[in-house]
Amino acid sequence: MAEKWLEVDTAGLKGPQVGDGLFENRASVAEQLQQTAAAEVSIIVQAFGRLEKTKRCVESVLEHTAGIDYELILMDNGSTDGTLDYFRSVPWEKKTILHITQNIGSGYPSFMLGLKDLGRFVCCLANDNIVTHGWMDGLLYCMKSDPKIGMVVPVTSNVSNFQQVDLPYKTYGEMQREARRFNRSDPSKWEDRLRLITLGALYRKEVLLAIGWPVGDSGFFHDFGDDDVSFAVRQLGYRIVLAGDTWICHDHDFRHGEGKDSAEFERSLKVGRENFQEKYFGVDAWEDVNNYYIHHFRKLTIKKPIGTARILGVDVKCGTPILDMKNRLRKASYFDVELSAFTQSPQYWKDLKTICTGPVICDREEFLLDSFLRENFDYIVADRPINCYHEPQKMLNDLFALCKKGGTVICKLRNTFSFLGYLYLLGQRDVYDNEVSYAIPLEALHSALSKYGRVTHVIAEPFVMPEEQREIIESLIPEGLPEKQTAIDRMLCQNFLLVVEKNA
After folding, report:
1. Strands 493-502 and 41-47, how do they pair?
2. Is the pTM of this model over 0.90?
3. How far is CA 114 from CA 5, 103, 125, in A?
């Protein structure tokens, strides 16, 4: 057998040091590997067909990534439309081409790349992304602002998860001009998130070392891979950030199923969601993370606290509502924020710990008041409806006891007088909410809250349903009923969100 010989010159390199922390040691190893990298940033473009979109993507990178030390890694995943020839013609010195003869999955090409040869930062672009002036500058500025930011994603077009920003344009030239005006660094527009759709994502090398390369669990065929990456990065102790000051184009009409078989897509979503729950011990990437308050908090007038702003989340599942409140304070240029949380569900504890610098307590509802200092929080968000607790009045007392004078309490009421309750009374036992809720009218809760402070907002959260179903429900309301529209609105409301400013 022929002898294999490998020698690596490590002269001048520094290894992890005794006393360094977890993050410092990860960064140290990443720096050691940087000696073989071709550039500071590796931009990976993967293509399977769609040659015209691939050309627009690559050409936009070449045109709009000025002043950055980057390499291009062009991966042809089994295309038969001339993609490989185009990649060979791309005029960039720091260029690597990877050709896969047959597409056997989008994750396979990355297995052919050695992480040690990639840059200090790694950006993954789909071939339907079009980048814009200053895009990489914006992502790097955000990333380098905090060593614990592990993943940064730009806002874009044609995307869900509150990551979409629509710029006004009709032509490619207009798009680039609008993006140039938009892409101005502004830390107040950065948002911490629990999950992100990873279009144009930028990663630190040490994060990829820690979670494994290629990025993401290969067990996820397609859907929910983004969710898995987001959870994996956070649970390593890093922040994942949406850079709201950096815009790129996603040239793909996903809402109308461009390039997808609808039946296969639905099956992929179902299986991916089940796989995610299996991996993360029952946590649902949609139900437990998509309880966004972004659209509600836009209506709030923020009073800047004196000193650190302390936010408490009570039964907020994985914590999206309190992250949204933190982001709302950031938009008001207030950055000194501490999150804490109380949950009755153990499966949420780990994810709450990834976003909270204050205490995270898992206990029964009757011990809420014993878990934190009284009059300690500027903002309290209780996501579980008040009328779903065993003792609603005690819960209200405890929430306001923990809130500072002049602070804000945000609570929710399940509308038991909706059309679901009406159908239940008519005998449809399968449509009613399985969670027991006391039948507390909105007016009664409003009156009770007025004793603690001033109710500044009452926000209705409507059921999401097709228009034809909405018309059927509206037909249930008798003609001639006084304030019929109010009755319709009440029936179509799932929850009410009430914002209370506590008496000073």
Report:
1. unpaired
2. yes
3. 19, 20, 18
